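Appendix B, example 12.
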Amino acid sequence: GTLQVDHQGSVVQVDPSATVLNNGTINVDVTTPVLQTRDFMVMGSPMDSETRGGVFTDAFLVLSHDPDSFNPEDHPNIPQGATNFLDEEGDFWSGHSGGITVGEGYIVRPQSGYTDPANTTYDMTYAQGTLNNGTVARPMVYNAANSPAGTPNIYANPYPSAMDVDQFIQDNGVGAVYFWEHLTPPSAIIPGEGLKFDMDDVSIRNFGGGVAANNDAPGNVPSNVISTGQGFAIKATSTGTVSFTNDMRLLTGNTTLRNGGTVADRLWLHVESDQYGLASNMLIGFNPGATDGLDTGWDTDRLASSVCLYSHLAEGDGQLAIQTLGAFDAGRKVPVGFSTLIGEETPFTVSLTRYEGDNLEGRAIYLYDSERNTLTDLTQGDYTFRSNKANQDRRFTVLFERDPQL
C-alpha cells in the first residue's frame, strides 16, 4: 500500500528503535513558500535513502557544504567575533550529486533555471528509502585555523515531523540556530562593494527568542519550530557531534507559520538606512533563567551585516544580536552599539518594532544617544540620526526610567 504524508502533515515515532518497512510506497510531500527567480531553499530529507536525482531531480542547482574549506570574508568594519557565513574564496558550497546525507542541509534551487517565473511555489516528493527515526548524528566541524570566531555547519530536520529548536539547542549545547532564506537577489548592496549574497538574509533563534533577517519584515521572527526538511546553520566553536533525537519531535506546528516561544519580557529594535533601505534587527530580553553574563543559548553574537544595531554586556566587548538578561529591573541600562559600511553621511531611523511582557506594557522605553545627548521614548515615536561609515560601540543606551544624569 501507500503511506502518504501530505505537506505540513506529521508522522511521529516515539520508540527510537522502531522501523517502518517500505514494502509499497512512502511519499512525504513538501511545498516550498513562494519563491522568486533566484530564490533558494536550505533543505534536507526525512527519508533515509533520498538522492539528488530523486526528490531534487528537477532542481536547477543543489549544493553541499564543506566546513573545512570555510574562510570568512574579511572587512575592516566586521569585528572579530561577529557571525559571518560569507566565504572568501567561494569554495564553501559546491555542486552536489548522489545521495542526500540524513541530517545535512543543502542549498536547493528548485527552479528549472534562472528564467523561471517569479512568485511560484514548488512541490517536492520524498520517496526513496523509508522514514528517518531515532538518533541521527552528524559531525560538528570547527576550523580554528581559518575561522576562529566560529565555523558554519549546515543541518536539516531529518524527520517527517516538526522539531523543537530549543530542545535541539539545549541537547547539543550550541549557542543559536540560523536560518538563511534568500530574500534578495545578489547585488552591489553598498556603493563600491562587490556583487554578492549578504548576511542581511539571516535570521537567528536562541532560548531568548528570535530576530528577523535584516532584509525581512521586523516581525517575521523565527519560532521554536523547524519544519520537515527545513535547513538551518549553527556556528561551531569546537569540534564534536550534533545529534537529533525523538525527544525533539513535535506533534504539531509542522508549518511555515511562526509561533514564537515565551519569555518574561522582551523588545525588538530595528534600524534602517532611509536612503539605501539597509537594515538591522536586535532583541533584548529579560528572563529569570538567564544571567547578566554571557549565557550559551541565551546570548548570540551579532551578524556581520552592512548596517548593524547590537547590544553589549555590561562588561566586555561582546556585540550581540540577541541578549537575554536576568529578571527585569526598571533601573536597568542596556548599552547598544551601531555600525555601518555606508561611506557617505546618510539618515538612519531606529524604531521599536514590538515589545511584550507584563513589565514592559504601558512603560516608556527610552533610547539615549550619547553623541547628540538626546533621549527618545520609542513607544511614542521613532528616532532619526545621521552617520557615515562608523563603528560606534555604546553610542546608545536603552533604559526604562528617565535618568537625571543623562
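DSSP finds one helix and 27 strands in the chain. The first helix runs from residue 165 to 172.
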